[in-house]
Amino acid sequence: MNVSSLLPARRAPASPPPEAAPASSPAPKQRDAFFDNAKYLAIVLVAMGHAWEPLRGGSRAASALYMTVYTFHMPAFILISGYFSRNFDLRPDRLKRLITGIAVPYVLFEVAYTFFKRWADDDPSYPISLLDPWYLTWFLIALFVWRLTTPLWRIVRWPVALALGVAALAACSPNIGDDLDLQRVLQFLPFFVVGLHMRPEHFRMIRRREVRRLSVPVVAAALVFAYWAVPRMNPAWFYRRDSAQELGAPWWVGMVMTLALFGCSMVLTVCFLAWVPRRRMWFTVLGAGTLYGYLLHGFLAKGSRFWDWYDHPWLHRPLGEIVVTAVAVAVVTALCTPPVQRMFRFAMEPRMEWAFRPTGRSGGGPSEQGGFAPAVPVGAQAAGRSHGPE
After folding, report:
1. Residue 372 φ/ψ, nearest 5 degrees
2. How crowded is residue 215: how many other Cβ atoms within 10 Å of its Cβ?
3. For the segment 210-263, what is each residue's pLDDT rounded down to a tens digit?
């Protein structure tokens, strides 16, 4: 017999009224390691691609690797950007995050890159122009535009088809000009729209064992094709910053290449995501700092050209190419670390409370920036709910 059952029951103490209950801080959200891993590995591929660019002239193999990586590394980033923009609307606190997390870093780094070019390239007259993004900053202005148009892509009936149509028209329109790098904004748009309409179950399908196995021969075939295409194809198609006419092709080729590159990029992006680890790795924590690695490594990438680091002949040999690749990986990894984030947070994640009226809602966390957005909480993802930036 249970002795406790013979004892008189005790009355539970009355709960304090809601207004008197002590406020408890919410438990911190658990980050999904998959997305942090994907962001880190993608930024590593970006740095490797930039490091390989000067090696292409003397190495067909380096050119093939370069072409393969450029097919999907930015599309993968942009797709993840769209995925974490699903809940974006024109609510005041979200607009505030759009300004402080994307627009302000764009202005600061556009000016910083301009002064860097003036000094490192001995070009003191190089103008400051916020309408003409220089080097890496195009992604920030593109993300700003894409996010502002997010409500539109959520209400149209065939969003991906419409985005592909816009990209195809841009690819055959040489009069768009260079302001705000609109060619890239429009030609990369379909990947952002695809991300907007992806759900957690889509990523679970990508990570299935059958997809991982199939991705191996697909990537191998892509490398072989890229090796064949190196002397036959202009790699500028992968940059998506020019129209077909500007690349010396008829207008209709722009439409064909838009659809062909979209298909190839999506296939290789799926192959890449299929092999991203799901569990926590030593580099998982670096996924929250990929914006820092992206923007900061550009100074070294451009500086290596301005200062003729690639003029050494041994760098263009197989061992030198391996060393260049390892250095690029090490540098971008270091730039994603928490100490670097703390050092440059004033420029990439400014709070700027003085510049805004109180909105009554808190904005997103400090890492909710662009394609480098925070991961979805594991429990929420398993339940299939949508968690965009708040």
Report:
1. -110, 35
2. 20
3. 999 999 999 999 999 999 999 999 999 999 999 999 999 999 999 999 999 999
